[in-house]
Amino acid sequence: MLWSDCWRRLKVAFAHVPLRRKASVYPVFLYRDTGQGDIEQGIRLANGHFVFDGRSYRLSARTAWEEPWPADVRRWVYSFVWLRDLQALGSNEARLTARTLIASWIAHTPHDPIAQEAPVLGQRLASWLGQYEFCLLTAKDVLQKQVMEVIRRDGRVLAALLPLSPHGWRGLLALRGLLAAFMAVPDQEGFFLRYQRYLPYELERLIGADGVVADRSPEAQFQAVQELSSMIAMFNALQLPVPPLMSTTLARICPVLRAFCHADGRLAVFNGATERTEDDLARVLERAERYKVIASSVSMGGFMRLTLGQSLLFVDAAPPPSLGHDRDAHAGTLSFEFSHHHHRLLVNCGASLGGAWKQAMRESAAHNVLVADNLSSSDFGRDGHVSRRPSQVECQHRSNDEAHWLDISHNGYYPSLGATWSRQLYLGQNGEDLRGCDIIEGERDVRFIVRFHVHPDVRVVQEECDIILHAGEEIWRFCQAGGMLSVSDDVYLGRGHPEPSRQIVIASRGGRDVQTEGKPHKRQQKVSWMLERVPA
């Protein structure tokens, strides 16, 4: 490992050595980045600032690359993905803003290691070439020549960084950036050879046999589809045959992306995902897939997708993804989302791009789970990766034409509390009867709360013993036994910004002694609950 790291650093250092070969003035091939831009963000950028994760930051061409922004902000800014927002605005002012900031980057490239991370570097190259026609094609030859010199140099650096350590779906950003560099300077055949060599390797470790990306996130699934479809557009611009591996991979991952959607056409909210819009998903899928197919398997990469009548129940029945694919992972093991027709009823709280909200949304408390002693079932290190996860997660599913039964459990609380959590779920009555039983077993009683986060579009009314949910014209009743029921304020970030919402809470009571033959004495605490539709 030490030798490979030293060799990689040597290759990167050599890649920075200027070449004697004269740089061309213009890219040989161009393609148009089809990613969706945000016009409002484009207006802000043209006025010298931007908003990231709800906070406003200045973006001056003089000081942009010296600002002490948080790491997540720097990754976003250094990637130049925001060129899409300026292109969406489309004004001459937006064009000049983009051009000025690119020139500023070339003149004052920061020495920040984040700027040289492979996914950031790859997205920057792809963004420059994908928006070249918009912001650089009419620039002076001097600037265009400087851009080409940087593309050639950074392409060599990116090629030297391969093969990558696991980066989840972001590994595809590095490969797309290398393909973009080859489009600009096709005389550098080594760029294309490296791309061809490592694309199969990256796809093999990223995409599971069932078509689910290793990040185990609907958002990562969306991004993987978008990246591969963009690469296909680049092959078309190069007038080269599309590698069959790309087409077959898209045919596997697109049905899974459709399967990750609720009936409202938006994504389920797990592991760093937000709902996105129907237009986002329709646009990406229209470009990427030939046939509109939904994955038929009820088990997708550890997720259970159970349908009955007009109801849909998603359950996260696996631990967080492995190291390298876990940058956006949440401590949501055994959490679920439940929708009926076009109404989301019970949801996880969503995700944030960075800062305190990002950390809060990753904790177990932001999911429909049992939270023991205010702890999360998984922990996160300072580098953002999962530092502790459940070592055992079990799942058993039974079904017939009339109902689904799901028995799931994990030991994420055993190291700290000596307790295991098991959950039993039942979906019946044509999807209008959802029941659950949550059980904690250990050496002693523990304090716990079972949380049910209600979507902001649903109105919550607490009655004496029950809680009534009003979803459009539908009425649902929630009740429980074994705990203390209440309703409290909540927040939802599933639509990209904080929204006030409500959550149903069941607090624990004392347990009872249980004795299993051949096993030591245990304490068991149990709560049962039910959500049923009230007939009109």
Task: Compile the SSE list and pairings.
Blueprint: H1 2-15, H2 39-46, E1 49-52, E2 55-58, H3 71-79, H4 83-89, H5 92-107, H6 118-130, H7 132-135, H8 141-161, H9 171-184, H10 189-206, H11 218-238, H12 244-259, H13 278-288, E3 299-300, E4 303-308, E5 311-316, E6 336-340, E7 343-346, H14 355-362, E8 370-372, E9 379-380, E10 386-388, E11 393-399, E12 404-410, H15 414-417, E13 419-428, E14 433-442, E15 448-454, E16 459-462, E17 467-471, E18 474-481, E19 484-492, E20 499-507, E21 512-514, E22 522-533
Antiparallel strand pairs: 1-2, 3-4, 4-5, 5-6, 6-7, 8-15, 9-10, 11-12, 12-13, 13-14, 14-22, 15-20, 16-17, 17-18, 18-22, 19-20, 21-22
Helix pairs in contact: 1-8, 2-4, 2-5, 3-6, 4-5, 6-8, 6-9, 8-9, 9-10, 9-11, 11-12, 11-13
* Most strands sheet: 9 strands, antiparallel
Give the percentage of residues in beta strands: 15-25%
Low-confidence stretches: 13-17
Instruction: Determine Rg (CA atoms, Å).
Output: 25 Å
Distance between the termini: 66 Å
Count, helices: 15
* Helix/strand structural class: alpha+beta
Judging from the principal axes of the Cα atoms, what is the shape? elongated
Please estimate the helix content: 25-40%
Question: How many DSSP E strands?
Answer: 22
Rounded mean pLDDT is 92
Brief synopsis:
With 536 residues, this protein is an alpha+beta fold. Helices cover 34% and strands 24% of the residues.
